[in-house]
Every structure is written in C-alpha cells, then in structure tokens.
Amino acid sequence: MVTAFEYEREIAEELAGELEKTLVEYPKKIKANPDNVEQGLAKLVLTIVELIRQLMEKQALRRVERGTLTDEEIEKVGLTLMKLEEKLEELKIAFGLEGEELNIDLGPLGNLM
What does the domain layout of the chain look like in residue ranges? Predict the structure, then answer.
C-alpha cells in the first residue's frame, strides 16, 4: 500500500520532470527586440482576427446548411467574409507575414489553427 507521503512524493517528482522539460523547450528569457515589436504585435492581432474569421465562416456554413439564413443574409455574410479575408491578406503583405506564421504554437496543446 502506498502511503500519502509516498504518493505526494511521486506527484512532486512527476511535476519536477514536467518543469524540467518545459525549461529545456522554452527560452529562459523573452527575447524582446524593439525593432520588431510592430511586426510581433501585428502577427498576434492578425492571428486572432484570422481565428475569429474562421470561426465566423464555420458558423455561417452551419447556418446555411440548417437553412436559417435568407438569400440576402447569405449574400451579405459571403461578401463580408470575402472582404475580411482580402483585408487580412493586404495586412499580411504590409507586415511581411506569411499565412503559416499566423498559426501560434501553444506548446503541449498543439497549434492554434
């Protein structure tokens, strides 16, 4: 039978191992560079906007499939999503970003998109 102390020790050792792996995988310091702050911020904002655009697109498709949108609403949603995608492409070009760069690595959770 495992005592409470032994169980807590196992948990602590497991946690310590996970922390060691994290320290190896990620830098100890954030590499802040004033020269690329603008691009980093643009990347973050555009990633969030792209995620929201994808979610809106999926929701619109579900509503179209369920028949809950009128033809006029379908047209408006389609045009809005197309314009948003075009604007995102313009902004990516302006900040020198590629589409793949907008996919943030969330570590153990995997990629955002």
Answer: 37-107
